[in-house]
């Protein structure tokens, strides 16, 4: 163990406190704004400590919404939370289930075309939705899937990251375990459900965090694939509310919705911090 | 391609297993990408009524448009600025956190939380601080004689996007640097300490060189992040302006395709961006994925 001088250790903690402050300031100020009256936000300078409108602002944000959310028939953030949740969970579940099946197929079977499958999945790494955005829009439009959750989720339902992570993980499973399962008379699907799935809890947990955050934070695709405000996610709602000039926006409501939009993904990452950090840094390379 | 030695013998089952993924890839990835390739060599009117083969005309038009060429430089500028600032900060914070022992947990938790914050939300948070009308930071800067207005001053707009993106990205870089540092053997660092090397020297002479694979990996990942994930920030905060100072390649694909309805031009841009991404991913595989066997 190295013992550095006290001075060095104090400087280290001071540096970390400064770093953490910089990280937290934007979130803190958003929270402060979400507890103020709109007029207070326009004071010069804005109050630096929370006000008393917490409950009122959040109730209004969740139930009524604010200016920019569709004029007379504004929608509250509750609908948007629900939509974001459907999108994020839909993307997470489909990516994980589809990838589990296909990596099981690639790793534990031999069949003609096996490497073709592998290369197809690899190619998707190079085709994020942004580079195929116009043709994907035309395709989903032709399939009459605009303004539907199926249309929102399907173009994002494949994950090369997940497929490769599972594949790499499956490769480390000792042959003896497969051998033993076969000797005991387990067919492939029995092996999959009774042995492989329970063994894969760690990569699954990692992927749940990564893909939920990915799905929850989607912006470009929902922006294009939905026009009906019943499908607005939190990201779209926030975007629409701020489409007004910044001195006209309902900042107290915008900030309340911003805070609401951060809670689920941040809570998920922090609650599964350990598996997530381990899985991310070991798998993503 | 490497596989397991012990396998199951079914003939039809493996095809069923890979079918969902293969079908989705073909329909939603390969087909649209092929469409983009096709569209890039045709000129189509905005209603899709007629289509004329024009060869490389779209590419020539796009590449001879100084605004497009500028968007390439803007994208590269963003990539370098975001990668540079976020990696410097993350490297510093992780180096410090790695040396404070068990008490670092609270710091770590705070630093990694922006990982989960959407790029759009990061943009909104910083926009709120820098807004000329309500922003606390903009107000503070006025005390120093800086009239912050990212709607008018190109440099301000560019900086605001870089700040928001870098802030969001610190968490990811911090995690990888910290992971990298924890795998540096204690014995190496300790023997240097015994030889009288102080914390700075130990870091630059031993830890940092050992982190070079991590640094390279992060550089690539930050480039890819900047190419794509800055779109929400730019779309929300600056709309590519002022005077195209923040119009990246992805932003232009969106604007030309969906606002300008120039499908050929937009498709040509998509193809060029694809080439860009393939080059970067190939680099990544060449240098980072060596130990992974496919």
Q: Briefly note the structural class of the backbone of chain A.
A: mainly alpha
Low-confidence stretches of chain B: none
Q: Tell me the number of structural domains of chain B.
A: 1
Overall 3D form of chain A: globular
Assign an overall shape of chain B: globular
Derived structural class of chain B: mainly alpha
Percent of residues in β-strands of chain A:
under 5%
Quaternary structure state of the chains depicted: heterodimer
Overview of the molecule:
With 285 residues, chain A is mainly α. Chain A is built from 15 helices and no strands. Chain A has a domain at 77-233 and 262-283: MetI-like fold. In chain A, 69% of the residues lie in helices and 0% in strands. In chain A, α3 (54-64) crosses α14, α4 (77-108) crosses α8 and α11 (201-216) packs antiparallel against α14 (251-271). The longest helix of chain A is centred in the N-terminal third of the chain and has 32 residues, at 77-108. Chain A is globular, with a radius of gyration of 24 Å. Chain A starts with 5 loop residues before the first helix and ends with a helix. Chain B is built from 13 helices and two strands; from the N terminus they run αββαααααααααααα. In chain B, a hairpin with a 6-residue loop joins β1 (42-44) and β2 (51-53). In chain B, α10 packs antiparallel against α13. Chain B has a two-stranded antiparallel ribbon. Chains A and B meet through α1, α4, α5, α6 and α8 of A and α1, α3, α4, α5 and α6 of B.
